[in-house]
Structure formats: C-alpha cells, structure tokens
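Researcher: We're teaching a course module on how sequence relates to structure. For the next exercise, students receive a sequence and then see the predicted structure as tokens, so they can try to spot secondary structure elements on their own. Here is the exercise chain.
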Amino acid sequence: MKAKLAKKRLSSAIAISLLFSSVSPVAFADFQDVTSHWAKTIINEWVESGRITGYEDGTFKPNKQITRAEFIHVLNTAFGFNSKGDVIFTDVSQNSWYFNDLAIAMGVGYVQGYEDGTFRPENNITRAEAAVMIAKAKAISSDTTPNVKDVYDIPRWAVSSVASMIERGYIQGYEDGTFRPKNNITRAETLAMLDKIVKEITGNPDKEKEKDKQENKQENKTIVVGTTTAGESKDRVSRETRHSRNSTGGGSIGGSGYYTPTKKSSDTSLIVLDDKNISI
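Model: And here is the predicted structure for the students to work with:
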C-alpha cells in the first residue's frame, strides 16, 4: 500500500514538473495534439515564454485533467505568490511535494478544505472550484447571477466567484450556453482561465511590442516644417527636410495648410510637426 502511494506521489511530482516548468527538452516542440486545438494560441504563448512545457513524447495533453494540488502550484507560479500560512488539513503531510504550494495558498487565503478537515489534493479540480480559487486570489466577487443555462447546478459557495469571473472575461461557458461547474478542468482550460489575468498583471507582450513599433514609426515621421518670427500670422507648411522633435510652445494648422502661431516671440524658433502635435 505504501509503495503504491509513493508511486502515485512520484507520478504527481513528475506531472507537475512537466505542467509548469521553465526548462524542458520539449519546451518549444510542435505538439502533435495541439495543432487543431481551440487553445492552440494560448498554449504556444505559454510554451514560448517558458512558463509551461509539454511531455517527452511530443504531446502537450491539453485535455488532460489536473488535480487540486497541481492547480494551486500553477496559480501560485502564475501570480508570483510567496507568503505562507499554516497547513491544517488532516490528509496533507509535510513531506508532500505540494506542501509548500498549499502553505502559500493558505497564506494568500484562496483555498479552503472540506467539512471533514481534508483538502483532497489528489482529486481532480472542478471548474467551480477553480473559479473560486482564482476569484479569491484576485479578491473579486459579484452580486449578480451567472448568465448560464445551468446556473442552478453551480454550488451556492461558487455562484459569486463564477459570476465575477464571467463578467471580467476570465472564464467562459460552452457553446450551448452552459457552464458545467462540476466538470473537471483541463490543462488547456487552466491556461485559458489564467492567461488574461496574467497579462493584466505583467502586461500584454504583444501589445507592448506593437506600441513600441508605433512609437518608432511616429518618431520617424517627425519633420521640420519651417521657422517663425515675431509678428508673423501664417507660415506655409514645408515638408522638405526632416529633423528630430523640438517642442517649445503651441499653435495650430488651418484648413488651407498654413501654420498660425499662438505665441509671439522675438526669437526665431524651429517648427516641428508630427501626427500628434505641432509646436513652436
């Protein structure tokens, strides 16, 4: 019996190391079971960032269910939690591979056990349980009722969390309008739940890259359009030469293409024009 339990714990430890690790021989593999999967884009993003890996057989197993212990490990790592609390569950040993993660989950305050004092770490986590853990970790709630067809199947203790997750777009139901709260969550669903939240915390790399690209493009558009002197009311815009931005005041361009300065000075100043502002 002990040998069987030890083997089960070892298998769980190996599974979690594959589930969420920064180093793996198949971290950048083209997973054969992800090609047409609905979560392909998210999975590839997480794999490329080194936050999750696949298996040595070249698969990712996106539809593989994960346990409650595995889920808190993923959640702690994704959110960067590290504060610890006391682990008081009767079915958890200090020698368990997930003990540290459970201590962190207790410290953050997003887990609760069952009425009999157990945590049941090896049980596969349900969609309702996952929603509650994430909602508590994010400290979000809702007073509304989830807009899903099977709302009465959602446990009372999970209604607020599920509603808040749906409202913020962190979790979605199925195409038939159901949420299926008692279904066990998969690896792919776990990433889908956490992806938007992680990007809120760390920023969206793709959006940041696009922003930098646009800023560089904007900088290249900055051009010199002429000079002004005191008493001038109009100066035709010229786009013959380019120059870096030099902003010292403000003005406007009329519909005829002439520049009208709003600040008069005895000094001759360089007028710089770009797509966002024009000044002297």
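Model: If you want an answer key for the exercise: The chain has a mean pLDDT of 74. The first strand starts at residue 223 and ends at 228.
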